[in-house]
Amino acid sequence: MRISEAASASGLGIDTIRYYEKAGLLPPVERGRDGKRRFSAVDVDWLVLLSSLRDTGMRMETMRYFARLYQRGDETIPERKRILLGHSEQLDKQRGVLDRCAEILAHKLKRYDEIAAS
Amino acid sequence: MRISEAASASGLGIDTIRYYEKAGLLPPVERGRDGKRRFSAVDVDWLVLLSSLRDTGMRMETMRYFARLYQRGDETIPERKRILLGHSEQLDKQRGVLDRCAEILAHKLKRYDEIAAS
DNA sequence: CCTTGACCTGGAGTTGCTCCAGGACGGTAG
DNA sequence: CTACCGTCCTGGAGCAACTCCAGGTCAAGG
């Protein structure tokens, strides 16, 4: 799979993927003899995960740490589990943030309607 | 209210508040004769709103536009309403993103447990 | 009177992309 | 065979939104 396909499959941009590779967030991607990147199904799965973690606010440093653990094999699973569980908690906090914002917006919108009606 | 209090009341940092003022996201804040900023209750309410909008991903440019509308008075309410309704939709999209991430994480965690059990 | 703490300003530094210039390469059309 | 096109490559500049810092002011307390 070429980079443009990996991009649309993962939701990341082409530039972002190259940037992530350079930054150590994915293992060095294999190249064809033309020098172009070839993404395996495993690579793409990894990109999908990174994309999801990024979109929910995980920091690059954490993702890099997670990537290094992943490359060290199954012995690092407990630590990886810890990270993902921690991120699950982050998701819950973010739901709280969204809910509070929705409340504030609902309140504001109600006030707008009251002003319009008066 | 001094800037440190406005910061802890709104959840924004002191530097962020000053930055927002310079950037036109809040009307110029009144100063005491010592030159220090004095935040009114209205100012703080506004900061709380900005904080919530920022935390849910609204762009500064949009917030600035919203702030300008606000300063122009009640005639801009329909447009402000449009912006806040649009942001409500964003909140829904973000809930979707959180849910999808939670699913991926649950799946990964299950697989970790399977590997550990085998 | 001297120090402490909270504030001020302008500007540099950081994160995480995002875009761009300049160049190579493979496939198709003339 | 050659011209052109689309997709890729690299290194580096640019951008958003903070975040931190140096150097300075001022009021109040010991």
Can you describe what's shown?
Two copies of one chain form a homodimer. With 118 residues, chain A is an all-alpha fold. Chain A has one domain: Multidrug-efflux Transporter Regulator, Chain: A, Domain 2 (Orthogonal Bundle), CATH 1.10.1660.10. The first copy, chain A, is 72% helix and 0% strand. Chain A contains five helices and no strands. The radius of gyration of chain A is 20 Å and the shape is elongated. Chain A starts with a helix and ends with a helix. At the A-B interface, helix 3 and helix 5 of A face helix 3 and helix 5 of B. Chain A binds a DNA duplex (30 and 30 nucleotides) through helix 2.
Give a quick summary of the entry:
Chain A contains five helices and no strands.
Radius of gyration of chain A: 20 Å
N-to-C terminal Cα separation of chain A, in Å?
61 Å
What is the name of the CATH class of chain A? Mainly Alpha
Report the helical percentage of chain A: over 70%
CATH architecture of chain A: Orthogonal Bundle
Q: What is the tally of helical segments of chain A? A: 5
Secondary-structure element sequence of chain A?
A: HHHHH
How many domains make up the coordinates of chain A? Answer: 1
Helix-and-strand structural type of chain A: mainly alpha
Number of strands of chain A: 0
**Based on the structure, what is the oligomeric state of the protein chains?**
homodimer
Sum up the overall morphology of chain A in one term. Answer: elongated
Task: Report the portion of residues of chain A in β strands.
Answer: under 5%
Largest interface: A-B, 29 and 29 residues
Largest sheet of chain A: none
Averaging pLDDT over every residue of chain A, what do you get? 97
CATH fold assignment of chain A: Multidrug-efflux Transporter Regulator, Chain: A, Domain 2
Residue ranges of chain A: pLDDT <50 for 5 or more in a row? none
